[in-house]
Specification:
175 residues; alpha+beta; 5-stranded mixed β-sheet; 7 helices; 49% helix; binds FE2/S2 (inorganic) cluster
């Protein structure tokens, strides 16, 4: 049993490495940097695993420490895997003016999180966003890339509860 688990872990790590290499090598721009590689990885995986740091270091001939330095400098890079579902609460000025704080507080409470991050069961990741591009419908929340405008704390709680029950959210209540 232990061996099977070990194999599964190894094969997951290998598939992550394969996806990382493909993302790094697939960059179309002329100038490839540590930052551009990390962005390509984040586009592919949604986060930066340790394997990616190693691959980026090798590809760009930088040191692993240098790559970690870039990862930690840009706080938007996630170093933990994302949950199956993603909620983003807009924290931009327009949303802030019309109640984003209360919406965010409610989402944190519903998900049992102290701040941005992923729920203990790994199911839902909450992030703040500086503008979800639908300011006229502020306050705005995005659930699995589906925009929900004119959010109230109770709508936000409802969306969070539905995600916790494993329901998908789509259609209706769009921006
Ligand atoms: S500030 Fe929230 S959508 Fe633009």
């Amino acid at each position: 049993m232990h061996e099977v688990h070990g194999d599964a872990v190894t094969s997951t790590a290998q598939s992550i490495r394969d996806r990382v290499r493909k993302a790094i090598k697939g960059q179309k721009q002329k100038t490839v940097t540590v930052l551009s590689c990390l962005l390509a990885v984040e586009d592919e995986l949604g986060w930066i695993p340790a394997e990616a740091v190693e691959e980026v270091a090798e590809f760009t001939e930088a040191t692993i420490n240098d790559v970690w330095g870039v990862v930690s400098f840009y706080t938007n890079f996630q170093t933990q895997p994302l949950g199956k579902h993603r909620m983003e609460v807009c924290w931009g000025p327009t949303c802030h003016l019309v109640g984003a704080q209360k919406v965010a507080d409610q989402v944190l409470k519903s998900l049992g999180l102290p701040s941005e991050g992923t729920t203990a069961d790994g199911a839902i990741t909450l992030r703040y966003n500086t503008c979800l591009g639908a300011c006229s419908n502020a306050p705005v929340v995005s659930v699995d890339h589906h925009l929900m405008g004119r959010m109230t704390p109770s709508h936000a709680a409802d969306a969070a509860e539905r995600l916790k029950r494993g329901e998908s959210i789509g259609g209706g209540h769009a921006s």
